[in-house]
Amino acid sequence: MAKKYDVKDFRLAQNGRKRILWAGQDMPVLQRVRERFRREKPLRGMRFSACLHVTAETANLVQTLKAGGANVVLCASNPLSTQDDVAASLVQHDKIPVYAIKGEDNKTYYRHLRAALDHEPVLTMDDGADLVSLLHTDYSNLASNLIASMEETTTGVIRLRALEKDGALRIPVIAVNDAATKHLFDNRYGTGQSTIDGVIRATDMLIAGKRVVIAGYGWCGKGVGARARGMGAKVIVTEVDAVRALEAAMDGFEVMTMKEAARVGDLFITLTGDMHVIAEEHLKAMKNGAVICNSGHFDIEIDLKALKKLSTKVEKSVRNFVDAYTLPGGKKIYLIGEGRLVNLAAAEGHPASVMDMSFATQALASEWAVKSRNELTPKVYEVPIAVENWVAKLKLASMGIRIDTLTQEQEKYLSSWAHGT
Fold it and tell me: Which positions ≥6 away from 365 have C-beta within 8 Å?
């Protein structure tokens, strides 16, 4: 009989419980969703497999899904993102099967993904599309029974839109990442703060005065760039998109190629969702003591094979989560978190307050999928605007902020073409 969970140590469960409760008090929107879900049970009887970063904030989300009647199984979406005490608490205190251990090897990681799919879900929640990829290959027999999958990341949505474009997408997918209540806040403010937090925890680096190179000026790059500048860094942006590069320049950042930036940067952070943004030629050009890290979902943005090939010596854990690579001539390059997403590998991920919106949107998107199941076809869907507006208004209310409403006269004017100069 297959194991019903796989976590590191149940002795950590009580500490995990405290961490979950601490996060929950800063997630008022999700708490409102949970209260209604508990009463109405909109997910009653639904088998739900979630592949997410196993954090205290995620714990509050899966508790909400369970309150709504779902039969939930949780596995990690990244080998280094699990908070072991949270995983233990969810199994022990909430009776939610969890398959996640921080630092698990690739074989264990995929065994955990398979355990989540052995649950035979009718709904899935993904953070990077690894679960959905397996659903399209080894577990394709489950696709016909799947109501929908919710995707949380930019990287995952890119993969799923590519599947749709090729006519290979077999399930309905809701692009939660593209919701304004997710990417405008989670990606910009969450990634912005937690990435810098991970760098500082790992290196004890003074950001002020450093040349910080931000690879990619999407919402995540905008957030990290703003935080770094706010701490006194001289920020350089590299881009392949002309519009985003222009935006970065007009936001006051220095914009150049990675080849140029490699020679002058002190700290390099990749946030593109693409591979080998920092390549062999860039590593060769970096100065002694350069620090490199990635805040994209997968560990492909830095060419790690090239880094190892170039190195004459590798020193593991010169600090927690920092490895030193010595290149010919004695130059050292420091890699944080094995090139995996630095904000979870070396820190605690996004603050609960911002995940409140993302996860409330996730939960409500799940409810919408169940209610709309007869109309959904294999394509990528946007989050309904009604869900977005509800989450945003409730978040404002929790912050004690009130906004104006349109008068009847204003509404009439905005819907009319008759008024002119």
Answer: 150, 174, 176, 179, 383, 384, 387
Phi and psi torsions of 66, nearest 5°: -65, -40
Separation CA 156–CA 17 (nearest Å): 30
**Which tokens hold the place of 347?**
């820190």
User: For the residues of 119-152, what is the DSSP string, one character each?
Assistant: T--SEEEESSSHHHHHHTTTTGGGGGG--EEEE-
CA angle 49, 346, 320 (to 5 degrees): 130
pLDDT over 70 (residue 421): no
Structure tokens at 212: 């910080």
* Calpha distance 42→368 (Å, rounded): 9
Q: What is the pLDDT of residues 262-320, one digit of tens each?
A: 999 999 999 998 999 999 999 999 999 999 999 998 899 999 999 999 999 999 999 99
Residues 6+ apart with CB under 8 A from 312: 326, 327, 328
- How many Å apart are CA 241 and CA 331, to the nearest integer? 32
Residue-wise pLDDT for 85-97, tens only, equals 999 999 999 999 9
Give the CA distances from residue 104 to residues 98, 225, 284, 293, 339, in Å, rounded to whole numbers and listed in that order. 14, 31, 31, 20, 15
Eight-state DSSP code of residue 176: G
pTM for the full model?
Answer: 0.91
Structure tokens at 90: 């969810």
What phi and psi, each to the nearest 5 degrees, are found at residue 403? -125, 165
Supply 51's token pair: 């592949």
Element at 99 (helix H, strand E): strand 98-99
Q: Identify the burial level of 233 via C-beta atoms within 10 angstroms of its C-beta, where 0-12 means exposed, 13-18 middle and 19 or more buried.
A: buried
Give the total residue count for the chain.
421
